[in-house]
Design a protein that fits this description.
about 190 residues, mainly alpha, Arc Repressor Mutant, subunit A, 2 domains, about 0% strand, elongated
């Protein structure tokens, strides 16, 4: 990065080399600070430092007084926090090959997995709210019967009963749904 330090009349300032060295030292210190915050990610650190310097230049011009150092470090810290928060709200980024691994894990048939999930969700909707809650806590949240019973505020025996009857109803609903699927066209050709 090269900066030209000019005076108001357009001439190069006599203290340009000193200012350039001071600027370089400030940028290196800022970069080291940001790298520590990002646990050593050099590319993101460079982006944060560049954005910090741009904001500093927009807000304060080329004045290089010592009062800007704490301000720049605070701006850099805020940018790191914002970057972290926005990364948590975005869907997880995957590389260009990860979808093939996912496809292989699903047996090569993603559509079948999606359809199965839709059928299970529809079957769960047929259950009573008490049975849905019991199955959700035990199977989806992977809680023990004691933990789930405590969370739901019911005795463990009641929870066992709800899980048992909920699974029975779910199995019945899925079996009923599977029996309704047409496997072949009716003999008369009409559907």
């Amino acid at each position: 990065m090269s900066w030209t330090f000019m005076g108001p009349d357009g001439s190069v300032r006599p203290d340009a080399e000193e200012s350039r060295a001071d600027h370089r030292a400030q940028v290196l210190a800022l970069h080291a600070y940001v790298s520590r915050l990002l646990r050593g990610d050099p590319l993101r650190a460079e982006d944060i430092v560049q954005e910090t310097l741009l904001r500093c230049w927009r807000a304060h011009g080329s004045s290089g007084d010592g009062v800007l150092r704490p301000w720049m470090f605070r701006v850099a810290r805020n940018l790191v926090v914002d970057n972290y928060r926005s990364a948590r709200t975005r869907p997880q980024e995957i590389d260009s090959e990860a979808w093939r691994e996912y496809d292989a894990d699903m047996g090569g048939d993603i559509e079948e997995g999606v359809l199965t999930a839709m059928v299970v969700r529809a079957a769960l909707a047929t259950l009573s709210p008490a049975h849905q809650q019991a199955l959700f806590e035990v199977y989806y949240r992977d809680r023990t019967l004691e933990e789930a019973a405590q969370i739901l505020g019911i005795p463990t025996g009641t929870l066992k009963s709800r899980v048992h009857y909920g699974l029975s109803a779910l199995k019945k609903s899925l079996t009923h749904h599977h029996a309704e699927e047409p496997t072949a066209a009716p003999p008369d050709g009409h559907r």
